[in-house]
Amino acid sequence: MSRDDTRQTERSLRVDAARNRERILEAARHEVARSGADTSLEQVARRAGLGSATVRRRFPNRRLLLEAVQWDQVMTLCAEAADQARAADPHQALRSWLTSVTRYVTSSSAMAASLTPLGRTERGESCFAKVAAAGQPLVERAAAVGAVHPGATAADLITVVTGIVLVTRDEPDADSRARQLINLAWAGLMPARTGQRIPTGNQVEGSPGRH
């Protein structure tokens, strides 16, 4: 085999590996939302249409896979914050981003726990710090136009969401109760505009459910 052939083969293997990794993460996101942090590697492999050995080569244990899912979604939240920072309406930009944060933490208790100040990956990375730093410009823009309490920070708002989700997770109708309390918190931190009604618990964007 020539050197060019070897390089082409190596490139193909890297492409296949990247494609398999994305399939695994996508399957894991679905399974974690459906079954929670107890999702097995075998469940993920079946949904991804891959062999268990392939999944285990990429993620030797469930914790590493869960952390990869968490970090992938954290980076999505950070990218969305950067996009929303360019939006014309600071109030709506912050509300939209916080809706995404709420969806993330209500997808499972494990996701909620990852967005607490103590939540860290095995490498010591803080999902909380990463997301808070990404969201802070949105909070500052909203505060500048009077759309959020001037003393609020992104870390405060994330803590409110995760705290409510974790406290209500064992209630009979946990999702509805959490959404109701989150809206009450937003009503205090993010004043309604003139002519706007503060949404009730049933008017909050839905979530896929917690486990």
Automatic annotation (TrEMBL):
Domain HTH tetR-type stretches = 18-77
Alphabetized GO MF terms: DNA-binding transcription factor activity; transcription cis-regulatory region binding
Protein's UniProt keywords contain Endoplasmic reticulum: no
One Pfam annotation reads TetR_N
What keywords were assigned to this record? DNA-binding, Transcription, Transcription regulation
Stored PROSITE patterns? HTH_TETR_2
Q: Which residues bind DNA?
A: 40-59
Q: Which domain of life is it from?
A: Bacteria
Give the protein name, as stated in the record.
Regulatory protein TetR
Native source species: Salinispora arenicola (strain CNS-205)
Source species taxonomy: Bacteria, Bacillati, Actinomycetota, Actinomycetes, Micromonosporales
